[in-house]
Every structure is written in C-alpha cells, then in structure tokens.
Amino acid sequence: DLVNQTGRTPKYTFPTPGVYNVTLTVYDSDGQFDTDSMTVTVVDVTPPIADAGQVREFNEDVEVTMDASLSFDDVGIVSYRWVVTYQGVTVFEGNKKKERFNFTDPGLYEVTLTVTDGVGLTAEDTVQYSVIDVTPPTASVGIDVELDEDAPHTFSGSASQDNVGIVDWEWVISAEDMPPVRRTGESFEYVFSEPGVYTVT
C-alpha cells in the first residue's frame, strides 16, 4: 500500500515486518524538486501465540487429535512441536500441526505445544488431559481347597489385578444354615470349626 505524508520529520509506525521503500521528494520556492529513496527493513519482534487447545477429559485407550490450528503469528509459523508427558515421562513427541495419540493408561497427562515463527521466535502452551479408568479389576480368590476342621487357613487376594491398582478387598464366607462372614484386606486367616462346603467370594 502507498502511504503519503508531508512535513520535515513525519512519524510512521510500520505495522508488520518486511522490507519497505521510503521515498523523499523536496521542493524549493520555484517549484524545483529532487527525490531520494531508502530501504527500511522492519524486523519481527512479536513472538507467536501457541494454542494447544482446551483441557480435556475422556476414557482410557482412546486416540485423540491434538490440533494447533488456533496458534498464530504475524509472519507465519514454520514449525510445531508436541510433547506428551505422563507421570513425568515423555510418552509422545510430534512435529505436525495436527497429531494423534492413543492415551492407553488412565491418569493425568500434560500436553505441551511449542511453535516457532520464521525468525526463530517461539511460544509454548500446556494443557492437561484427564484420562478416566474404565477397566474393572479382576478378582482371584485362588483354587478350591479341602481342609481339616479347626485348621487355620489363609486366604489371599494377591493374584487379583487392576491396571491402576486395587485399593480394597471385601471377602464373604457363606454356607447353608450360617450367616455370612465378612472380612476385608488383601489376605486374612480363618478357621472352619464345622465340616461342610463353604463358598468364599
């Protein structure tokens, strides 16, 4: 665009980086004139704006798209870098505007986007993804056993499994003509004082 100004010392603010031609024309009282030109190079000092998206929550084992399209720079973004960390460990890195990653484990993830513009200025944005555990635990009470009456026996649920860890064990011992016996904890000892067939759950 052409900008015209008059006066001995006009002021002008260059709105965007780039190379500009500045031409001065001077006139005397007789209408004679002369022209001189110079080149002004305006350097980009405005860093880009990184936008990693919103805080998100979703179920485990879901492939999610991370999108940097809302990031901005006045001269243009030339590179993108995604880093996903889980429990302090980097689990994914990518360098595209849009990246996809399968969040297999439940928990809290940090997603960091770094963008770089054409002159090397950078910006960073970090958001958190909360991945929900939807996998139920697997209970394992052990194999069927035959015991002598009045002999103590230890029951253990240590073979039970869960992807995020078991926090509570609830046991029930039942048989005909007796009220259920309840216990808690990963393991416990019990004495069967009467012969019979018992169900341990």
Outline:
With 201 residues, the chain is mainly beta. Among the domains are: 56-132, Immunoglobulins (Immunoglobulin-like, Sandwich), CATH 2.60.40; 152-200.
The number of helical segments is 0
Distance between the termini: 82 Å
Number of strands: 14
Strand order of the largest sheet: 3-9-8-5-6
> What is the quaternary state of this protein?
single chain
Mean pLDDT: 93
Q: C-alpha Rg, in Å?
A: 36 Å
The proportion of residues forming helix, as a percent range, comes to under 10%
CATH superfamily of one domain, by name, is: Immunoglobulins
- Which structural class is indicated by helix and strand composition? mainly beta
Going by CATH, the architecture of one domain would be Sandwich
Label the overall shape: rod-shaped
What can you tell me about this protein's structure?
This protein has 201 residues and is mainly beta. Among the domains are: 56-132, Immunoglobulins (Immunoglobulin-like), CATH 2.60.40.10; 152-200. Helix content is 0%, strand content 49%. The chain contains no helices and 14 strands. The protein has a five-stranded mixed sheet, with no helix packed on it. It is rod-shaped and about 130 Å long. The termini are far apart.
SSE topology sketch:
Blueprint: E1 18-27, E2 33-42, E3 56-59, E4 62-67, E5 77-86, E6 89-94, E7 98-103, E8 107-117, E9 122-132, E10 152-156, E11 170-175, E12 178-184, E13 187-191, E14 199-200
Parallel strand pairs: 3-9
Antiparallel strand pairs: 1-2, 4-7, 5-6, 5-8, 8-9, 10-13, 11-12, 11-14
